[in-house]
Design brief:
alpha/beta, Rossmann fold, 5-stranded parallel β-sheet, about 20% strand, 5-stranded mixed β-sheet, 12 helices, N-(1-d-carboxylethyl)-l-norvaline Dehydrogenase, domain 2, about 325 residues
């Protein structure tokens, strides 16, 4: 398959490397120092499920150059999705499937603004990884999985070729879901609370979950997210909050959500698409979200400063 990875950071780099390792025709769309490293030195993945070193990879900063793709994995940050949709338009033909892998629940709708709706599937990934330096990715936690599916719940078979390619890739699991909306909300229930609480506490996950008041914030923010999901018609599994807390308990003590890492470094983060989305979507359906409102308000000044929008006075 011709698979284009749009956004070759930690997540896109990991899955693109695994697909290339399995022999797929992979093209990375990247920029800046990451693009230079991919072109000159290839790509290295250090992983708890097995390392991979690719001496050569196909990389470009021109998303039109690969031509029509069989599949496009959009692995940018959440606030870059709309621009990504415009950029990948030349890659999309009548049989192309576009799968976003962002946190949050709004990426497919954002891609619809630039791409044919029938080209866009729902998707997400579960993985804990970071870009250590250009061309080098470290995967340190969570067995990597991609979940994707048609947004209306039909099983059209359109996602199957990509799923089969992912199944052949070492260090990757894949699920084709008949309820991708529920899957997206399930992940938001995990990511928005842990990202917000760790960022507000300025502490890694291990310290947060071991501190009773902070752990209570995690639980309460999960309950708020579940209430918004239910009000919007998403069907979350029974016991989802207890299961999510148990999942967090199993992660390494030093785990740091990417949003916390970005805020601490003064970079733009996914605040608007995580706690901000819970607040915004809750308001639309009349569900109160006081914990997420607190986290969003507390982190917004730093976010605006990182984006050059703060007054600074």
């Amino acid at each position: 398959m011709r698979i284009v990875i749009y956004g070759a950071g930690a997540v896109g780099g990991y899955y693109g490397a695994r697909l290339a390792q399995a022999g797929e025709d992979v093209v990375f769309v990247a920029r800046g120092r990451q693009l230079a490293a991919l072109r000159s030195d290839g790509l290295v993945v250090e992983s708890i499920v097995g390392d991979v070193r690719l001496e050569r990879v196909a990389a470009t900063d021109d998303p039109a150059s690969p031509g029509e793709a069989d599949a496009v994995l959009v692995a940018t940050k959440t606030w870059q999705v709309e621009a990504a949709g415009r950029a990948v338009r030349p890659l999309v033909g009548p049989e192309t499937v576009v799968v976003p892998l962002q946190n949050g629940v709004e990426a497919p709708t954002q891609l619809d603004r630039s791409l044919p709706a029938e080209a866009v599937a729902g998707g997400l990934t579960r993985i804990l990884c970071e870009l250590v330096e250009p061309g080098r990715i470290r995967h340190s936690g969570i067995d990597p999985v991609i979940v994707m599916g048609e947004r209306d719940g039909r099983r059209t078979g359109r996602c199957d070729p990509l799923a089969e390619a992912l199944e052949r890739a070492p260090g990757v699991s894949v699920v084709v879901s008949d309820d991708i909306e529920a899957e997206l909300w399930h992940k938001l229930l995990l990511m928005a609370p842990v990202s917000g609480v760790c960022a507000v506490a300025r502490a890694p996950l291990g310290q947060v979950r071991a501190t009773p008041p902070a752990r209570d914030l995690l639980r309460r923010s999960m309950e708020e997210t579940a209430a918004v999901a239910a009000a919007r018609g998403a069907r979350l599994p029974d016991g989802v909050i207890a299961a999510s807390l148990a999942f967090l308990d199993g992660l390494p003590h030093g785990s740091i959500p990417s949003m916390h890492r970005d805020i601490a470094a003064g970079r733009p983060s996914e605040l608007e698409q995580l706690s901000g989305a819970v607040v915004r979507l809750g308001r639309e359906c009349g569900v109160a979200t006081p914990v997420h409102q607190f986290m969003y308000a507390a982190l917004l000044p730093s976010e605006l400063t990182a984006r050059g929008e703060g007054s600074g006075r």
